[in-house]
Amino acid sequence: MENETVILTGRSLTLEEVEKVSRKGAKVEVSSEAIQTLKDARQLVYDLANSDVPIYGFNTGVGWNKDKRVMKEFFQQYNTNLIHSHCVAVTPEASIEEVRAVLLVRLNTLLLGCTGIQPEIALMYMEMLNRGVTPVLPERGSVGEADIACLSHIGLAMIGEGDAYFQGVKMSAKEALSKAGLDPVVLGPKDGLAIVSSNALSAGEGVLVVRDIEKLLDIADMVYSLSLEGLNGNTSPLDPKTHEIRPFPGQAFSAERISKYIEGSYIYEPNWKKPVQDPLSFRSAAHIHGAVRDALEYLKKYLTIQINSSDDNPCLILDERRIVSCSNFEVTNWVLGFEMIGIALSHVSKASCYRTIKLSNNEFTKLSRFLAPANNVIAYGTIQKAFTSLDAEIRHLSNPATTDFFSLAGEIEDHANNSPYVVQKTRKIVDNLLYILGIEALHSVQAIDLRTDITLGKGTKKAYKIIREKIPFYSEDRNLTIDIQKIYEILKDDKFIGEIMKAVELF
Amino acid sequence: MENETVILTGRSLTLEEVEKVSRKGAKVEVSSEAIQTLKDARQLVYDLANSDVPIYGFNTGVGWNKDKRVMKEFFQQYNTNLIHSHCVAVTPEASIEEVRAVLLVRLNTLLLGCTGIQPEIALMYMEMLNRGVTPVLPERGSVGEADIACLSHIGLAMIGEGDAYFQGVKMSAKEALSKAGLDPVVLGPKDGLAIVSSNALSAGEGVLVVRDIEKLLDIADMVYSLSLEGLNGNTSPLDPKTHEIRPFPGQAFSAERISKYIEGSYIYEPNWKKPVQDPLSFRSAAHIHGAVRDALEYLKKYLTIQINSSDDNPCLILDERRIVSCSNFEVTNWVLGFEMIGIALSHVSKASCYRTIKLSNNEFTKLSRFLAPANNVIAYGTIQKAFTSLDAEIRHLSNPATTDFFSLAGEIEDHANNSPYVVQKTRKIVDNLLYILGIEALHSVQAIDLRTDITLGKGTKKAYKIIREKIPFYSEDRNLTIDIQKIYEILKDDKFIGEIMKAVELF
Amino acid sequence: MENETVILTGRSLTLEEVEKVSRKGAKVEVSSEAIQTLKDARQLVYDLANSDVPIYGFNTGVGWNKDKRVMKEFFQQYNTNLIHSHCVAVTPEASIEEVRAVLLVRLNTLLLGCTGIQPEIALMYMEMLNRGVTPVLPERGSVGEADIACLSHIGLAMIGEGDAYFQGVKMSAKEALSKAGLDPVVLGPKDGLAIVSSNALSAGEGVLVVRDIEKLLDIADMVYSLSLEGLNGNTSPLDPKTHEIRPFPGQAFSAERISKYIEGSYIYEPNWKKPVQDPLSFRSAAHIHGAVRDALEYLKKYLTIQINSSDDNPCLILDERRIVSCSNFEVTNWVLGFEMIGIALSHVSKASCYRTIKLSNNEFTKLSRFLAPANNVIAYGTIQKAFTSLDAEIRHLSNPATTDFFSLAGEIEDHANNSPYVVQKTRKIVDNLLYILGIEALHSVQAIDLRTDITLGKGTKKAYKIIREKIPFYSEDRNLTIDIQKIYEILKDDKFIGEIMKAVELF
Amino acid sequence: MENETVILTGRSLTLEEVEKVSRKGAKVEVSSEAIQTLKDARQLVYDLANSDVPIYGFNTGVGWNKDKRVMKEFFQQYNTNLIHSHCVAVTPEASIEEVRAVLLVRLNTLLLGCTGIQPEIALMYMEMLNRGVTPVLPERGSVGEADIACLSHIGLAMIGEGDAYFQGVKMSAKEALSKAGLDPVVLGPKDGLAIVSSNALSAGEGVLVVRDIEKLLDIADMVYSLSLEGLNGNTSPLDPKTHEIRPFPGQAFSAERISKYIEGSYIYEPNWKKPVQDPLSFRSAAHIHGAVRDALEYLKKYLTIQINSSDDNPCLILDERRIVSCSNFEVTNWVLGFEMIGIALSHVSKASCYRTIKLSNNEFTKLSRFLAPANNVIAYGTIQKAFTSLDAEIRHLSNPATTDFFSLAGEIEDHANNSPYVVQKTRKIVDNLLYILGIEALHSVQAIDLRTDITLGKGTKKAYKIIREKIPFYSEDRNLTIDIQKIYEILKDDKFIGEIMKAVELF
């Protein structure tokens, strides 16, 4: 994908493209129309300033200091001061992938021409992305309402201060720029504000989390499919007719996916010994995953608007040649989506845990207790503590954090939403859930092995194979901490779901 | 509205109609097509049972007892036992309005013909609604996944046991039916299950809460408008162009509404003494209210599906003449919406509190401290504790509750979502928020009064008048507990926002 | 107990005495020493004021208005204004019992002589208590740091405004005073502040909640004892030696109690069919209840200090004849105790729920599923939803609320603790838990009945008898909503645990 | 301290000693009496087993497998299997210091002779500590009720499997043992259980967190003292008399400490321009810190019992020569303490944030806005977002997590408390709070600098000096991310508070 190029217009960036650029090394290019917009906007800001109107952050201070005037001869100094004094972030660093997503999102929204930033600085984002210069960006310190405390570090690197990665190696920003053949930028009026005043940190990290949730849901559907085969469970809750009657879109989607995965499986064979109804964690899996898919749609919809619209204040209205003070940095609507999705994922986690518990219970599987391969093997007993303890963390993290803020800056900034933290706690939920689903998968393939001679579905067969290539049958007691880490890494790798999709011809 | 009639088809019920029937006394009528569907379904269930297939809840027990067979001669007895043993609810009672909503929702979803209930019993819901018989229904005791522990009380009243209201008076159900000219029903096979196995409690109560949130948002926009005039604030964040650039639908909607309310107001007059930017609680009001509107759309969409689709298990597939075991009682997707909206409303609450604090701060208003009308009057000082303490409750209630459940019924029922409690805590949030917005309104009209000789907007003028008719200017210290209760009741009354809408020609 | 009299000194009030006065009608008397202290303090405040020192709330305004001076001739007016403007409370009303606790606590702390209140007003609290005048006091509106928004209503009644109960009947305060043979008070300097500036609302309500928790723990130990007999469980975790080895005081206490209750029970008989170890909900009951007892000790210790020390600001130092500005209205330490106890009770709830689930599981009891008395009876199946849904509420309520506050009064009051709400949510937890333990008790007596011919313990025998007198054996399916309410009321009645204590000679 | 030796008896270990050994390299020695106890216990277990009594985990399986018998010839194999199958932990690793604390705590409680472990294995803990062998121990995976999923990794290292650190370098456990001159142990009966079945992970990590909180409170008192000087605030709330009148022990302690720190300060000078009362975040600091001190006492008391008593099941009663099944692995009482302290620290955090906000507000300080040293410097504006965002995390982390558990192991393990996670989230709270207090300190020293020519107190002078040695006066805008990290490290270093204590002669 390194040869792919994403063309940016300010209005057409997809979540998938953000991932391509940030994680897969795709290049970016700014459309010529967008470059013209940048130039027009820069000109407008000068024209307005010449008419001596106070323009927030251009010829005035920012925040509580909006009552202070900034004189022309101090533009560079003031903007450098602004970058410096806004560097108030706290460890840990965002990952290189995340910072790239941040750079991309900010670049795209700059192209709408609402800031009046120097075009050269806008293009610096592009160069950094394409040449592999990634500023070091501590990810804590912002309460949302623009992530100014953190994004400042991008400005810092652009002027050749602070640290940055070049091709994955950490060094001084100055050196990184130089190795990349770039000169530090010279800040002019409004540039400081344009760099820092954006929600690109939470939006950029958020996009990657959303992408990961999408994959997680595919994985969850897959792991559930394996478990259904491990249990020898009922397929009637997947009946398409029942989803027609109950038209929640997500549940029909998941049910269809799962049906694809288990196509051809032995579980479709009539078997009078099966109980009529399995535990709800099995029976309702498509419904629960579907509910999360519905919730995710909400989030995707608004996050896509976010990365293709201006969150700038003040905001240039190019076609009307004016500048307006506004509140477009408000991101509460999609922060709410992240809060909802965290709670939603807690349901996925609970259901996975309960399925795993059932898989180790001989009453339900009619296999051995704890899926032990022999009488003197202890097997999957204590592991129940591992995945349920991770679920307890998820439950804890799913508590909301968005409304816990202070009134700041002389009581002027009396609303916030903690967007970065909300995104980051969701990221942690997703990571924990990968472990939980991984442990479920360990159980389901073990249960499958204990049922000798069964035919798996088209997708589950593939999944089984990928897992068993790296993690052998549990034939005697061994250090499971290692298996847990392995299965986590298998699921985390895009290849896992990718190969399955190929197997079921969904790609 | 008592003369209005809502025709039910099972597929076309709106949230507004639920309110009309439950709160305004509209009558209901079942479409003839739906009656035929009920009959066909009843016949199908008999046909299937005759073919000796075990049908869950028809000729088998329910829940963990699904392995037990029920013989024909015990159908009435078993179904009565089922109703009795499912009466396991806990105080307090749902309100009459709420129980009516529950009856209506259950009636409508029965019409889809997925249960095979006796048509006579389905029509009993209609009769109860139309003749004013309302079973006493304690509202706690259900964990979602069908509100069987509570809905049983409707069955109880139908067989003439327990208590009910007739025309608003509590009496024995037997007497209520008799006064209404109705005979108790005789339960046959599957009737017990059809009565109890539905999410109609949480859906019914939920619809009313959603209706209340819709009104609350209109009120919030209105109260903010008054406050903007009380503060003499800036209107630039309402600029339609800024919402075009940032196309989150809710914020544009709220901004437009607010602009209507303040049309013609003095605050549009140029005033160089105004600060460029007001505190965010003012500046971002449309954005915050809009974010909640966006979240509410999510909830409305799925709740509308809920009340127009079958949540029954097992589910009759009439056109294919079969019955399927399924999990359509899962309501996680809209329960997530309620969790999200609770958090969203916490933002509305915070912003209202901060605006009120600003209105009592002379630094921001340039009026007197605490809006005191004279030097020896204490005025709105301590009241800050009142509304912020209500906000603390909202913050507390906005924590999620949906994933805290047990594995029940021999570990078979290992998923739940606590839908009734989630709805009920949201109801409480809405009620608290009405008080908070009410107290904001007390402040804003006081601030308006302290600014002599100003012209209010088209809508705000009306709102001001309605409030001041019942609550006079605060000219000397008086018992504010009374004013708080009064303003709460003014806002709660549909007439408040109704008359304003008329004034701004939105109705 | 109505003939009993509690002598108040300001330093010796116990939690038990608060309950006696508030709930059992005991009279109060102020020690003569304390009356002298009141007089000395009043004199001191006059002496200091004459020396023209500004004394907060005496000759100055309060809160943000502390910079305003109050002149002698306006003392009555100002103090009346203060009462009026501090009446900013919100429904619902505190119960009569609770308001009596509030009156008592405030009276006792006034006796320390730190306020300089008119002695006549202090004695008015005593008269109100002794003559049965109870002001109507809406219980919401305070954020802690003194419950000024609510306690003002006591002042209101004292000056003959607002409403009050006389001997349990609601009427105007004026009428209530008159019927009680009391004259309204005339407010002088500092009286308003002394009346409102206290944490007596949260402390008073808190004491009653703490008393209820103490009883609840006794009930929990008792219900567990019944369940142990219902299960035919193991007594080894009660072995005193194991508690010597693990010297957490609470668990030893509970273990001893339980051992007393089951003295002589059949479960001590050797029985080789018992499993070695019961589920943890049984095995760890004494440990869990004990942990809550330990936590409760924390709370009792500091709450006792609270009701016997001054929380006044400013604070008169009588022996040094000076007045100091201080922060003694801070009650964070015992509010923390309430937060902890809520979480602790969530453990009690969980354990009770799990025991009840086990009692209805034939695998564990070797009795019938759901404790059904016969094959065609459904019995305790759906009831699982009832108690677990109440547990979900407890889990939700156990989230903390103490740190969610605003910065008020011109940013001066930038700390709070929400003490009333924290107490009130704990009260709700206790109430829910009574239902949960009640439902467990329904199960345990049913299980006991299904084991024919067993000998119960000394205490459990009594408990069984009290319950079975009002709630018969569940021999056929019946409306359990009624049984749930009955058992709740049985447990709530002090007689239940009282008679058991007599039976085991603990009283 | 590396030359110091702590003598272990099983009954006398202090929290401070745990820190000495784990962090400062003190050596440990087991008392000869304790060694004899170990031997006696081992003998007893053999004697009992010979009498053919089933002994849980000795000649039976553990958990749900307690119904399985283990034969003598399989003792080593079974115990190795047990260690293997209990290795089910999840990243990240506990720190070396923490693992050392875990080793020490487990060693000490083994000395009580309740397990019957091989004395050689008990002494292996000592050798590992003294020779610097530290097993790699992933810290997640346990739900409390003994941290078996994690502690297994200690057993793994002891038998020469898995990884370990030797003198700080990671290598295979085998190599580490060999470098340390130790042979792997050979597991015999009951050894596996004795190694894994303990709460030593949560207790060990917990002790270090408690020690850090103790220091944090000293730091908080110190930073507050600096801020009081920065503000030129009032000292009257520190008046000892007011704390006599209000005898909560913690507040008096903090008030005294603070008074020591500011002894001799200019703020004691009479100054009529000071407002009578400072904001509560200043006025109530000693009370809030004191409340946390009181809460901490609770935790210290019970944690000290924990590390000096047996949490083993089954439990040998040496003097009565029997073995009892019990539930002494229950740690709910001190887990509750951690939940409480988390909420308590949230109060400390809120108060620090509010003080910092005040320090940057010229209205309160009468200094420049944001403590800017000159008009063209932006200074401490945006930094408000940094510390308040960290507070939002603390608020989030302070939600309880202890009651979110599943029923495991065939429904036998139906209680848990999530002790490790509760401890770990508290650790995170403490870490965040160090940053917050650090940022407050940056403000207070800047405010102090802006007040030229003032005399600081005995302790604050020292603190000021230590800080200013590393972080110069903020004279022009600079990258504050660096300053934030620096001040965090200064405060974290024991030397900071140590040198201050010396300066005020408290050590």
From TrEMBL, chains A, B, C, D:
The keyword Lyase applies. It holds the Pfam family Lyase_aromatic. It comes from the Bacteria. Keywords: Lyase. GO terms for molecular function: ammonia-lyase activity. InterPro entries: Aromatic_Lyase. This is Aromatic amino acid lyase.
